[in-house]
From TrEMBL:
GO terms for biological process: methionine biosynthetic process; threonine biosynthetic process. The active site is at residues 158, 253. The keyword DNA-binding does not apply. Keywords: NADP, Oxidoreductase. One of its GO terms (molecular function) is NAD binding. This is Aspartate-semialdehyde dehydrogenase. Transmembrane segments: none annotated. Gene3D superfamilies: Dihydrodipicolinate Reductase, domain 2 (3.30.360.10), NAD(P)-binding Rossmann-like Domain (3.40.50.720). CDD domains: ASADH_C_arch_fung_like, ScASADH_like_N. Belongs to the aspartate-semialdehyde dehydrogenase family. It comes from Paucilactobacillus wasatchensis.
Length: 363
């Protein structure tokens, strides 16, 4: 008998939703049994709904192509068929906050790719290798929601994955100040190069809301659960300032980062800390976890999107060009896959962690 968890993907027809169903094909723990989108698409098969706008490199998975799309707002009907849902809905932030809480209150856990709940004080924003303990806040969220098993957990912004893991590996050296400039792929806007002629041969120096996310979300990840206040309190340092640019690349967010440390690490110590960095996903051998979370590349011209974005099936982080700086202590280049590690893959890994921690259970 198939003991896999029954999973719904709400917002299944967009680029991140497509990545979810692709990554979940043949997943050892999770089986997609419900796909949902707007009322306009409801009633069509999944294959029909994405015909002509399928953006993945592989075909629509056989397991989902004949599933009939449900209306994402039919919360009770969807909740009755699944153990939990992945959320990639495209709505206003207020609408997303409301509908994700509505699912949670049906005792259906929600693991969300959306930003709407990232700053809800009792919602954990998890990178499983960095802050798995933030799931402890769920007990207080359940108190607020009045649920026994329902809750919301989110993954952070895709672009911070290209430099936050390195800074986490270097925590013992006490980073104090960071400049991070990100060069972000067009798929981060839910588009392909064909969908976005404005990006071809161009760089767009503005992505709405992105710089605030880049500067503040790592601090929540490095924060702690405050049992008295029943919320996650952000760390106060390092201070991060950023600029975010959209570039003509399909997948892969690159960061150019500069760091000051309170300690005085050597280059050898910094590289060793990167390569040795492990987390709970590696210890538990979670299905989506990269065996090597961070790789350091010695070549002068790496990491490159063309060669390195799919490191560890897109779930690993590539760091290179670590060198002293004339103003800051050190500078480096980071690269992450924005729809795998940065979006759907990161959320799936988060769900695997929450399942192993006992927060996601079968209904």
């Amino acid at each position: 008998m198939d003991q896999r968890f029954k999973v719904g993907v709400i917002g299944a027809t967009g680029m991140v939703g497509q990545r979810y169903v692709t990554l979940l094909e043949n997943h050892p723990w999770f089986e997609v049994v419900v796909v949902a989108a707007s009322a306009h698409s409801a009633g069509k098969t999944y294959a029909e709904s994405v015909n002509g706008r399928w953006k993945m490199e592989t075909p629509v998975p056989d397991a989902v192509k004949d599933l009939v799309l449900m209306d994402v707002k039919d919360v009770d009907k969807i909740a009755a068929q699944v153990d939990f849902v992945f959320s990639a809905v495209s709505m206003s932030k207020d609408e997303i906050r409301a509908i994700e809480e509505e699912y949670a209150k049906t005792e259906t856990p929600v693991v969300s790719n959306n930003s709407a709940h990232r700053w809800t004080p009792d919602v954990p924003m998890i990178v499983p290798e960095i802050n798995p303990d933030h799931s402890e806040i769920i007990k207080y969220q359940r108190e607020r929601l009045g649920t026994k098993r329902g809750f919301i957990a989110v993954k952070p912004n895709c672009s911070i994955q290209s430099y936050t893991p390195a800074l986490s590996a270097w925590k013992k050296f006490e980073p104090t100040q960071v400049i991070a400039t990100t060069y972000q792929a067009i798929s981060g806007a839910g588009k392909t190069l064909e969908d976005a002629p404005e990006i071809v041969g161009n760089v767009i120096p503005y992505i709405s809301g992105e710089e605030a996310k880049s500067e503040n979300e790592p601090l929540k990840i490095w924060g702690h659960v405050d049992d008295e206040r029943k919320e996650i309190v952000s760390a106060e340092s390092p201070v991060i300032t950023s600029q975010c640019l959209r570039v003509p690349v399909l997948y892969g967010h690159t960061a150019a980062a500069f760091v000051n440390f309170k300690q005085n690490p050597t280059k050898e110590e910094l590289i060793e800390a990167l390569e040795d960095y492990r987390g709970v996903p590696q210890e538990l051998g979670l299905p989506s976890a990269p065996k090597q979370f961070i790789q350091y590349m010695q070549q002068d011209d790496r990491p490159q999107v063309r060669y390195d974005v799919n490191f560890e099936n897109g779930m690993g982080i590539s760091i290179g060009r670590l060198r002293p700086d004339k103003i800051f202590d050190w500078k480096f280049i980071g690269l992450s896959h924005n729809t795998s590690r940065g979006a759907a893959g990161g959320a799936i890994l988060c769900a695997e962690l929450l399942k192993e921690q006992g927060y996601i259970t079968k209904k």
